[in-house]
Every structure is written in structure tokens, then in C-alpha cells.
Amino acid sequence: MKHCLLFGLIVCLLGCNSFGTKEKKEYEVGFKTIRISDKTRKYKPDVDSTNSLYYRPVDIDIWYPTEASLGDSLITFGDYLKLFEERVNFYTASYAGNGMASKFAQMLAEGFECADSTRLLKLATQTYKNAPNIEENFPVIVYMASYNGMSYENYLLFETLVKKGFIVIGVNSIGRFPGDMTMKKEDAVEQVHDALASIKYLKTYKNIKFDNVAVMGYSWGGLIGALVAAKIPNIKCIVSLEGSEFHHYGYNKEEDADFEGIRNSSDFQQMALKSPYLRFESAPINQKTAKDSVNNFLERVSRNYTILKLDSAEHGDFSAYPVVVKSSGNCKNAQLYETITKLTSAYVEEHLLGKSSFNKVLEEELNRTVRKK
């Protein structure tokens, strides 16, 4: 996958954040990844069916409730980045990923001027690798990763959600061979079908309740999440972390044309989302000058929607990366990611678990850290 796309996220991640969970922990957090082949789609051109990349490979990342034992090992942030490195090699059928984990960690550390790559790679998470499942039924959140991103980009949010009794299924942003995501309709479709293939496969798991599902996405993943939500019946709610479904025209002519290709597709034109919809938006201190126009995505959404602007937030603040880097270096953090986590958690708890806490949490944060749009 292209280095510039994979590492380009650094540019929008220069913010200050903090993260903390004070609530009593109900579950420990487990993580596993499953690789499947979607035999309805071809992936690598000019190879025969004996090749491991002939059919579309799909890596399913799953965060789930567990009862971890002392023998289970905690994942480090470096383990997540190593996973990314391994996937680059696999999807490109090359060794292009070698060394990317340490390079990406170095770029993050230097970008935030905090910590160093060694401490960042060794930072422990609160997640146990391949810990046993709890044999109960849990509601599920399908998460769509950002542009050329891996789903662990928001693992801190997932840890909070899992502790409250959710399963999170992460769908990575991987386009056509050799895996580069672009804004072309054809690549967007691949991520949509990766999500649908993941859900189809996981329906055999007894502890996942696919009658109780939310869809969530960050940035590009917000747009893809909307397309996915339109194809899954009875979605309980949708959460967009400054998703690209609200496209801002005028910054890049090629991107505008690509978005028009997606917007004019039959899937987008037929979209009519009836599920409750929560959207977060940034409100940078140095706001860019508004361009031509913004796609009015609310035309595709029911009246049950809430749009919140997070004061002083940059686009990258809706990812866990700023918090992770600053935590590894004991650097000063703001409260942005914690606010996003509290509101997101309360919203999905209300719609998937029947708890009525969102309005209370929103009232506490309203006009203090967030504003209704």
C-alpha cells in the first residue's frame, strides 16, 4: 500500500488529547483477527485459483468481552503496528511492509513532539490477545476504518465499549490490488463488501447478536459506514466521527470528481437511512476558509439525527493516535478524546442496550466542550 497514503494521516493528527475511563470495568477486553477469503470477488489479477491472493482476502479485527487470566498477554501498541506491517506484505505480495511499524511509530512521535518511537511501540494496551470468548450474546458495533487506515486507529474507544458489553468488528480500509484505497467508487465498493463479507462470516458465532447492530466510522470510514448501514436491515444507530459523507468541495478537483462518482452511484442515490444518526465535527482554532459547498448528507438521513461540533478539535482528534503518543511520553493532554468516547458510548448504550444516558451526558458537555449544530 502506498506509503504516502498510509502515513498521510500524520498531517491531521497534530492535536492535544487525553483519555481516561473512570467507570467500573464490567469486562476485560480481548482481541483476535481472522482472515477469510471472499470467493465472490477476485483480488490479484493474472494469477490462477491456487494463488492465495486469487480471491479477495478480508482481515476481520474483533474486540470482545473476555475474562482474561494471568496467562493471557496484553497487546502493545507495537503489536498493532506490526500487524499492519504484516498485512502490507501479504496484500501486496511483497516485502514492502518491512520496517513500517518502526517508521510509523517514529513519525507519530516526531509529529507530536512527544515521547520516542521505542516507548510508543512498547506502550501497553488494556487488551488481551486471543483471550477466550465469554459465552454470552453481545450487541455488535461494525467499525469502518479511515482512508487507508487500520481499525485499531480507535482501539481506545473500542476498549471502553467492550468493557460495557459490546463486540466491535473492525473493517480495514483496503482497496483493489495491491491494496491502495482511493476515492474512486470501485475502491470504496471493496471496503463496503469487506464489511458485508465479515458480517456474513461472523453470523455463525453464537456470542454476536446481529439483530442488535450499530455502524460507526471515522473520516472516510464515515462515508463507507453509511453505505454499509444502508445494506444491513434493522441497524439500531449510526455514529460518524467527522465522516466524509459530508464532502467539502473546492479543495481538490480530482477528489471532488471522485466523490461525485460515489454520490451518483445507485447505492448512494437509493440510500435512505432511517436509523438514529450521530455525527461529530471538528471546530479547529485556525479554521480553513470555507470552499465552494458541502454535500448535504442529511437528505439521506431520517429526522432523528444529532450533529455535534467539538470545540478546538482537529480532524485527527477523532482517532486514538494523539492520545496514545502523548500517553507514552507522559505529555500533557486535553480532554477531547475522552469527550468523544463518553458521548459515543452513551449513544450506543442508549440505542443498543436500552439505557437512557445520552441526553444527560450531552447536557453535561453541551456548551462546555461541544455545541449542537
UniProtKB/TrEMBL annotation:
GO terms for molecular function: hydrolase activity. It is an enzyme of class 3 (hydrolase). Pfam families: Peptidase_S15. This is Alpha/beta hydrolase family protein. Residues 132-249 form the Xaa-Pro dipeptidyl-peptidase-like domain. It comes from the Bacteria. It comes from Emticicia soli. Its EC number is 3.4.-.-. Keywords: Hydrolase.
